[in-house]
UniProtKB/TrEMBL annotation:
<dbReference type="InterPro" id="IPR011051">
    <property type="entry name" value="RmlC_Cupin_sf"/>
</dbReference>
<protein>
    <submittedName>
        <fullName>RmlC-like cupin domain-containing protein</fullName>
    </submittedName>
</protein>
<dbReference type="InterPro" id="IPR041602">
    <property type="entry name" value="Quercetinase_C"/>
</dbReference>
<feature type="binding site">
    <location>
        <position position="102"/>
    </location>
    <ligand>
        <name>Fe cation</name>
    </ligand>
</feature>
<dbReference type="InterPro" id="IPR012093">
    <property type="entry name" value="Pirin"/>
</dbReference>
<feature type="binding site">
    <location>
        <position position="56"/>
    </location>
    <ligand>
        <name>Fe cation</name>
    </ligand>
</feature>
<comment type="similarity">
    <text>Belongs to the pirin family.</text>
</comment>
<dbReference type="InterPro" id="IPR014710">
    <property type="entry name" value="RmlC-like_jellyroll"/>
</dbReference>
<feature type="binding site">
    <location>
        <position position="100"/>
    </location>
    <ligand>
        <name>Fe cation</name>
    </ligand>
</feature>
<feature type="domain" description="Pirin N-terminal">
    <location>
        <begin position="10"/>
        <end position="118"/>
    </location>
</feature>
<keyword id="KW-0408">Iron</keyword>
<dbReference type="InterPro" id="IPR003829">
    <property type="entry name" value="Pirin_N_dom"/>
</dbReference>
<dbReference type="GO" id="GO:0046872">
    <property type="term" value="F:metal ion binding"/>
</dbReference>
<dbReference type="Pfam" id="PF17954">
    <property type="entry name" value="Pirin_C_2"/>
</dbReference>
<feature type="binding site">
    <location>
        <position position="58"/>
    </location>
    <ligand>
        <name>Fe cation</name>
    </ligand>
</feature>
<feature type="domain" description="Quercetin 2,3-dioxygenase C-terminal cupin">
    <location>
        <begin position="151"/>
        <end position="243"/>
    </location>
</feature>
<keyword id="KW-0479">Metal-binding</keyword>
């Protein structure tokens, strides 16, 4: 059976602009966590300089932040204090519960980021924190593996507590990359999100995405191919989520 693709347009996302904080929410809006399988949240946020989120609590989610541009300071109850920059991915397994704060401490530049929440397979996990950097050069015209299940990940990826993979790419105009669907559990599903950075993308040749769009891909299995081509005049920055 061939893959089924359904586009989620950028304007169909939840949106709120509070001045200091501009958020577009693919799945969740007003605390509605329906999501797509274990993938519950993709928020694309811009936080203005010297503003941010005070200390707040999370539990029972795998939470990761992908920095597109700018800087974000993270502090948490595990004692981690870090300023995240472009190309960084910060991962928190909230488990039994953590508190953290997130601030743009830069005096003049906004921070642009994706924040993703995934539901783990098991409750009551021990909280865990990890940051890895995936360079611009490694993502350029390549699909870089960023997150993979803990049981089979290595030092090149961040481990997550469910059957879930994330990839990212910076695809220059006219270039193509191919994603090979992962995992042995059936059925598989894939979600693609293209960031609000001006790029355009074709998926499997006949599905076109503009900045902020996403696409649900179903009826796929391990080993199937999903083909991406940058069709605009700007680099297409996008993320691929591959899950059971």
């Amino acid at each position: 059976m061939s893959a089924q693709l359904v586009v989620r347009k950028s304007e169909d996302r939840g949106h709120a602009n509070h001045g200091w904080f501009d958020t577009h929410q693919t799945f969740s809006f007003a605390s509605n966590y329906q999501g797509f399988g274990s993938l519950k949240i993709i928020n694309e946020d811009i936080v203005q300089p010297t503003t941010g989120f005070g200390t707040h609590r999370h539990r029972e989610f795998e939470i990761f932040t992908y920095i597109i541009s700018g800087e974000l300071q993270h502090k948490d109850s595990m004692g981690n204090v870090e300023i995240l920059k472009a190309d960084d991915v910060q991962f928190t397994s909230a488990g039994t519960g953590i508190t953290h704060s997130e601030y743009n401490v830069h005096p003049t530049l906004p921070v642009h980021l994706l924040q993703i929440w995934v539901k783990p397979d098991n409750p009551n996990l021990k909280p865990r924190y990890q940051t890895m950097t995936f360079s611009e050069s490694s993502k350029t015209n390549n699909l870089v593996h960023i997150i993979s299940p803990v049981e089979d990940h290595d030092n090149s990826t961040i481990g997550i507590n469910t059957d879930f993979h994330m990839y990212a790419s910076l695809l220059e105009p006219g270039h193509k990359v191919i994603h090979i669907v992962q995992g042995s559990k059936k059925p598989r599903r894939v979600y693609i999100h293209i960031a609000n950075t001006g790029g355009k993308l074709s998926v499997n040749e006949n599905t076109m995405l503009q900045q902020g769009d996403g696409v649900f891909v179903t009826e796929v299995k391990q080993g199937d191919e999903v083909v991406f081509e940058s069709i605009g005049d700007k680099i297409a920055e996008f993320a691929v989520f591959d899950l059971a």
